UniProtKB/TrEMBL annotation, chains A, B, C, D:
Cofactor details (free text): Binds 1 [4Fe-4S] cluster per subunit. Binds 1 Mg(2+) ion per subunit.
SUPFAM superfamilies to which the protein is assigned, alphabetical: N-terminal nucleophile aminohydrolases (Ntn hydrolases), PRTase-like
Location of the active site: C16 (nucleophile)
Involved pathway(s): Purine metabolism; IMP biosynthesis via de novo pathway; N(1)-(5-phospho-D-ribosyl)glycinamide from 5-phospho-alpha-D-ribose 1-diphosphate: step 1/2
Entry's EC annotation: 2.4.2.14
Pfam entry (one): GATase_6
CDD domains for this protein: GPATase_N, PRTases_typeI
Residues noted as binding Mg(2+) in the record, renumbered to the chain: S307, D369, D370
Binding residue positions for [4Fe-4S] cluster: C260, C406, C463, C466
Name of this protein: Amidophosphoribosyltransferase
Organism field: Pseudodonghicola flavimaris
Family: In the C-terminal section; belongs to the purine/pyrimidine phosphoribosyltransferase family.
Coiled-coil region list: none
Key words of the record: 4Fe-4S, Glutamine amidotransferase, Glycosyltransferase, Iron, Iron-sulfur, Magnesium, Metal-binding, Purine biosynthesis, Transferase
Amino acid sequence: MPPAHPFDDDKLHEECGIFGVLGVQDAANFVALGLHALQHRGQEAGGIVSHDPEQGFNSARRFGYVRDNFTSTDIMETLPGPLAIGHVRYSTAGSKGQTAIRDVQPFFGEFSMGGAAIAHNGNITNANALRRELIERGSIFQSSSDSECIIHLMARSLQRDIPARMEDALRRVEGAFSVVAMTRTKLIGVRDALGVRPLVLGRIGPEENSGWVLSSETCALDIIGAEFVREIEPGEMVVISQETGVESRRPFRQKKPRFCIFEQVYFSRPDSILGGRSVYETRRQIGVELAREAPVEADLVCPVPDSGTPAAIGFAHESGIPYGMGIIRNQYMGRTFIEPTEQIRNMGVRLKLNVNRALIRGKRVILVDDSVVRGTTSRKIKEMILDAGAAEVHFRIASPPTAWPCFYGVDTPQREKLLAATMSEDEMRDFLGVDSLKFISLDGLYRAAGEAGGRNNSCPQYCDACFSGEYPVEPADMIEKGFKLKTAAE
Amino acid sequence: MPPAHPFDDDKLHEECGIFGVLGVQDAANFVALGLHALQHRGQEAGGIVSHDPEQGFNSARRFGYVRDNFTSTDIMETLPGPLAIGHVRYSTAGSKGQTAIRDVQPFFGEFSMGGAAIAHNGNITNANALRRELIERGSIFQSSSDSECIIHLMARSLQRDIPARMEDALRRVEGAFSVVAMTRTKLIGVRDALGVRPLVLGRIGPEENSGWVLSSETCALDIIGAEFVREIEPGEMVVISQETGVESRRPFRQKKPRFCIFEQVYFSRPDSILGGRSVYETRRQIGVELAREAPVEADLVCPVPDSGTPAAIGFAHESGIPYGMGIIRNQYMGRTFIEPTEQIRNMGVRLKLNVNRALIRGKRVILVDDSVVRGTTSRKIKEMILDAGAAEVHFRIASPPTAWPCFYGVDTPQREKLLAATMSEDEMRDFLGVDSLKFISLDGLYRAAGEAGGRNNSCPQYCDACFSGEYPVEPADMIEKGFKLKTAAE
Amino acid sequence: MPPAHPFDDDKLHEECGIFGVLGVQDAANFVALGLHALQHRGQEAGGIVSHDPEQGFNSARRFGYVRDNFTSTDIMETLPGPLAIGHVRYSTAGSKGQTAIRDVQPFFGEFSMGGAAIAHNGNITNANALRRELIERGSIFQSSSDSECIIHLMARSLQRDIPARMEDALRRVEGAFSVVAMTRTKLIGVRDALGVRPLVLGRIGPEENSGWVLSSETCALDIIGAEFVREIEPGEMVVISQETGVESRRPFRQKKPRFCIFEQVYFSRPDSILGGRSVYETRRQIGVELAREAPVEADLVCPVPDSGTPAAIGFAHESGIPYGMGIIRNQYMGRTFIEPTEQIRNMGVRLKLNVNRALIRGKRVILVDDSVVRGTTSRKIKEMILDAGAAEVHFRIASPPTAWPCFYGVDTPQREKLLAATMSEDEMRDFLGVDSLKFISLDGLYRAAGEAGGRNNSCPQYCDACFSGEYPVEPADMIEKGFKLKTAAE
Amino acid sequence: MPPAHPFDDDKLHEECGIFGVLGVQDAANFVALGLHALQHRGQEAGGIVSHDPEQGFNSARRFGYVRDNFTSTDIMETLPGPLAIGHVRYSTAGSKGQTAIRDVQPFFGEFSMGGAAIAHNGNITNANALRRELIERGSIFQSSSDSECIIHLMARSLQRDIPARMEDALRRVEGAFSVVAMTRTKLIGVRDALGVRPLVLGRIGPEENSGWVLSSETCALDIIGAEFVREIEPGEMVVISQETGVESRRPFRQKKPRFCIFEQVYFSRPDSILGGRSVYETRRQIGVELAREAPVEADLVCPVPDSGTPAAIGFAHESGIPYGMGIIRNQYMGRTFIEPTEQIRNMGVRLKLNVNRALIRGKRVILVDDSVVRGTTSRKIKEMILDAGAAEVHFRIASPPTAWPCFYGVDTPQREKLLAATMSEDEMRDFLGVDSLKFISLDGLYRAAGEAGGRNNSCPQYCDACFSGEYPVEPADMIEKGFKLKTAAE
């Protein structure tokens, strides 16, 4: 496995997408399609587990894209049956930089009452302590993944059926998670009490004979022609079988929801519906808010492709400044590319992006991007734009400064690598060398996301820890490793 | 090799991209980057030949993307030296549907005065006759490619040096072609007398020690930081060496240039400069012309991604109707995908495109696309848009009706498969089932391409055979196979 | 993974070879060499685990030959450190006929006091019961291998150090086993109380700085230049560290040893020393005994290559009949071969063996083979010999009739597939269609193996269950599945 | 492609095996089997070309063993039809040490009257001159193989049918060659006028509907159940079609045959019949002659496996000294193995061979080997035998000293690397450090090969240039490169 491309590392990355289907023939085919639609949530590896009444559980786990691994008849024929779940993941490996295939989900466990497979999106913040305890009691871990704790907790539960064992297990788990799981006959979906990560329910097929779908996002319902039913609620567990339909349980103490606001800004696909709102519309509205909060005289509004596009459209519309494609993305950019010589390594971001010189030359350009993480890519883009003869370069960022790492299932650099953790907005502007730099305000972001009154600071409507440093669940493992929470002074 | 994706077959496809570099260390690395930037001109296979004074000629030819094949140090170290050329190709194989690796260019020939390699973009319209003649005289063909004729003609030339042999060879060849070739010390570029296919010259590196670049498009100069010098002129051959620089020859009888107008509409990348004009600007201007020629009351202008985007921006700007992303492209779509069941096969284009339902619902939508070939994809897109609740669907097409196949290096279906060959505009509208359908006029297209007076019908400024049926070079091989030219009556 | 070749299935197959090294730089390299020398004990897959003080535990597991998998620097560099163990295995999978990579040993477990890896040769006869019990208590099994029970039993032991936990675990295990295991600093070897499977101890390197080796056979000491020290004794556990050397423990109740006599006949390599005796010499002596027990007038003694060769040499020497290579083995036979048409399928064993016609023609031929299992190959060889013009064909078999399956780590067909389970010697002769057929007597075999007085029937010196049906350890799992032990009447 | 194993390089290597079949369904399957039986003649790569009336010519060429490449239905189904030829080759590449796939035969050429494919065993001694001439006239070579000259000479012939063109071509060619070729309907076999390399004719299938086979050796007839008909005679060309059967032509001036005597000593398989004599019997007889020419008192005769075995059997029989397997070969040795550290590299030949210590200890051992080339392996074997405690080591070599390179299709080191080119027999004995060393005399070898009167020095019955330095065809290309023929003084 080659390392992820260096020019992609200047983004936050969602770590996982999950998908499950019950009640259609060859369910694994639908899962493959769903995972393909969720590929933006994890490009490193994917896995599918299926169950067939005659052939039992089967699984396949592979590194690489869904389209390359789960497309051949050879593979798909090994995954028969009307029930299947799947998972795509992004590498979050540390110094070694590489995931082993045994870390690729779904995880499977054989219990005395039968097998179960689970796929997990999120992060368990007390995984280290749980793991120590389980090993002490004689569990053998096969992966380095935190998610494996869940299956061991289930194995040790004294409950008689698997959904009840999963309730037992998830009550021991802290953090943010959405889970899709399966037994021989049931499809199960769970969201943590805060509902940080998304999970939706859909139906597929003709009414008289329809099946059920669980998915991280609605865009993956569309690809298989499934109908959106509703979101799984924060703190809800749904246990679905062909016979009894959807049974809703509430295993956790109720809390006020804190959905991840960065899903709105960047992670989710623009054609998904989150919390009843179009992601595309929220992003376009962020552009509108930005144009109001931070207007500037200019000749052209350009998105940094592709994630800045909806906000740029909103900014251009609100400001009346023409919209244009000043930066062209290479469609054939994969995860890797040649960098054999110093000479070539320096050309960096050009492998992925090229400036539309004829359009840029002589113009005052507003560049709209979704976020600034390390700032490395932003600097290179600015240089390309100036090299192409722009008269002025103004950055407008569709999120507040990202000053804190996320511990809830998002791959973020250490805090000291985040530009906004060490610099003020003005310092960042000087560091990037642009004529102006403005981030949307936290209130503006909340307004764009539909909270007309802005952020409720005493009880925020979203998890915005990456901007605010206010962590709704204590990141116990990270504190053990030395992470310092925000102090009163900050 | 998997077959190309069925949902891509509703486009015309450029068949090749060519690139060459002389005078920089490890030239093959630059060629790999250049080919990566030209990948849109051919995704099936690629090849590079390099020459090093000590290690002689070396070559590597592979199926698949440049980024997957020419990125490892393992491969690139086998291609040393300061001189290299490369080629990317799109499959145009017939019934067998598959190219052999021996058909992948560049082709290499060893002559008594040394070796030469050539890479060819275009099509030789008298290849069948040439091939028969050469075999009769004792040449052994190794590939099924028409381009191999050139190397055999060179081998039989009585000239003493390789560039002169190439002149001899190309004077026997009819059709449309741009060629990049190399000897042990020289980089050679040629365009046919009409200049149908593009080829540009660039410089790379510091002035005191700069190297030379030949490329199908300027966007591939940008990726390696090369400076655009000029286009190779129609009918020109340039012979470049480190010692003597660029020598210009004129091997062919002079003709009036007929550059391919479809390069402006679709083939070339929007960030390239063709004939002194920005491709992006031409396309945006097509949208402006379309809005003038075929206005319609509507709520939203949506591009069919990604090729319809610049024209949609121009249409929105000119018409004042808001621009929005009504269709979202899956970024992880490769050349292949699973279609194991009838059930899934029917979902078709959804694998690649999804409708942004929240944006579309209830709106009168103008869809801007670059062209209509068979019409199969257009129908599916229309259905998706209506399923999402659009009130009206209006198609605006950024090219005239494509009614004739191209025989100059473009992969087109047989004439009877072209929707516009058998239907009028109104029939097509009914076939597609949309509220209105309008193509830009041929004159409008010429105006957008900078010809203020429109098309000079007595002596057209471009090759527009795919729209007009007027072929500037007789397609001899195809006529032999039964193709009927346009009659006076048509 | 292709299935094993059909023409190899007429042999019993040893299931595993194990090897471990402590105290030399890059121990994994030595393990790879040792496994290569033990490849005859298992060709399907191999694995190595190593430990390095700085880089911790690392492992690699692959299908196929050692020489193809553990030869590249790429792989071997991922297995650093002075301590490593390895395993080769033969597939014993049931109806699915295929092993998953997760079934490939060594198995690894992380305990609270650190990790351990184990490699196991043999078979656990109470594995089903153990597995049920462990799952009931919350263990998650990752493989379908019986050997995984050991690591889970270790995980649940209350002992404070790993060797003591292994003692605990192995006391729960019934069956025949030799085990090589490792912790971060210790190399561990164990043989079951009967000592059914072999295990030897060696030293490597200069005396002042020597390391330790554990191996299934002595031939694997030779390949790395290690010196044979002694056999691990039946019922012995050795715990070896660099600091304290070899510590010997006795975890099991003492029993009279019953070493597997088939190791002498076929499994072990002829250049190994087992129980102080040369395997080659034992086999040659079997030929001598056979010549005495079952003489016949003939012109030529031919081995069935390669396993019949030493006995054929002994038979020829004792009988005075010339020895010759009447059957030639194809050296390039792998595990698989083409059988696309009925026509070709019928040629069967010819792919592997060919008759030396010029030598055979007109002669009375004695064929010496090691064993008869199903008899299918023997019939084909007889036909080839007769086709080549032999006057007479006499089979002499270097083992008694194989009438019972082995449950101690050997892959044997079900009892009803064993020719000798359903036919008398005369019936087998007629079935094979040869002029005579004689097996060595059980007493003759014991004499050849050094027991001058033959078999001690009240207390046999070896495990010979495959010949006698007397199982020294009750095959509990198989009895549960319906296997019938020998009755008093048989 | 990994380099050949260093411990194999102390042998001469036959460069090629050829095989062809006409008149059976799916002829390519039979060719694959035949090539498998000829694998000892070339292990680096193999290729098959087939012709089917409907699907025309098809080909597949691969690096590696036949069993690994031409076994899957996937490949074999691409090679339909009743006519096919194939080729296996040993790498003879020079400094680069690697063959390109385009050098793998059969070669194919399309002529005006249809296509033809040829496979060639041997060496063209005037290839350089031919190649220069053909390039000068405009032929494009695609490989670095000398054999490609034949197809270009055919392309330029003025004859009207392909067999006649092949006659034209082969009359221009000097050297030693056997050729198998095919047109759309004909199978063709040719041997050069001296008949240096072997080629035999066989029939396959029932008499009323039989097909034809051409093969380098008879052992490959056996594997497909074909009947040996006769050898193709030196200087003969056979043109075979289903309609007309075998037509024999004599394209070359007649000469006295000089079959390669090393085929008898080492190259051919022992179960083949060459010139009416069993190869096994000739080799056994060499052992008998050696025992008479160079007797020595000893306790054991051991073959160096596997090529020394027949001569060792003959030596033991004639001398009355017991025969035994003192050296055991690892059956799983492939072409490559790990040599990551100096430490391991030194163990050398142990990877492939191990001494049977128990047998050797204290004995006076006669080692019988087929030849001594560089002497490197012989030294290592001697050391292993002495380390194992042998009292004396006597080498007996089943061929005369190899003092000259072969230029007729055999891979030999440069002359100065041949031990016998620079040392006398006594010097070699001292170099190897053995108690005695004796080679069979040239006369003894001829007697064993059936020439009762020994070698006819005025007109030798065989080509024995590697021993005698008397080259029956002038090695023109090598003389051009500086090779010195034997002088009168030598």
